[in-house]
Specification:
83% helix; mainly alpha; elongated
């Protein structure tokens, strides 16, 4: 039982670190898009932002999202093992949290698609739209954290 508790603590720590990295990217990438809207196509700023966006998405955000999901699912499995069954997942809170995490993953994929638009010169969204989109992960994170810390026992 001590080993299971220790593993749970490690999983929880790695999950939190993954979420932090993922959220950093989800909050920063749309800011790069805001600046990218003003860049002259094929100009120095355009090329710099393309590189920064690629690195952020491929080297930080994608691995962090995958790690968040993997460690999160392992935490669920660990909770099921520790509690002795699936009953630990009962209640509205788990479902709500799962829906919000799916939404967060969806926003991640919207960002990846928008990056491709900048890459091929077909961005059709304004700075204002990216500024608004920048708030979505923050709002989702607030609800996810509150559900995880207050509603889920």
């Amino acid at each position: 039982m001590m080993l299971a508790a220790a593993a749970y603590d490690w999983l929880r720590g790695l999950h939190i670190l993954s979420v932090i990295a993922w959220m950093a990217g989800l909050l920063y990438l749309p800011r790069l898009f805001v600046y990218h809207c003003d860049a002259v196509p094929e100009g120095e700023l355009d090329l710099t932002l393309r590189d920064q966006e690629r690195r952020l998405l491929q080297l930080i955000m994608n691995p962090a999202m995958i790690a968040t999901w993997v460690f999160g699912l392992l935490l669920i499995w660990s909770n099921i093992e520790r509690a002795g069954g699936w009953a630990v997942l009962g209640g509205w809170a788990w479902g709500a949290k799962f829906v919000l995490i799916i939404a967060m993953t969806g926003i991640h994929h919207v960002y990846a698609a928008r990056r491709k638009r900048f890459l091929n010169g077909s961005n059709d969204w304004s700075q204002r739209r990216y500024r608004i989109l920048n708030e979505v992960p923050a709002l989702l994170a607030i609800f996810i954290v509150l559900i995880a810390t207050v509603a889920v026992r």
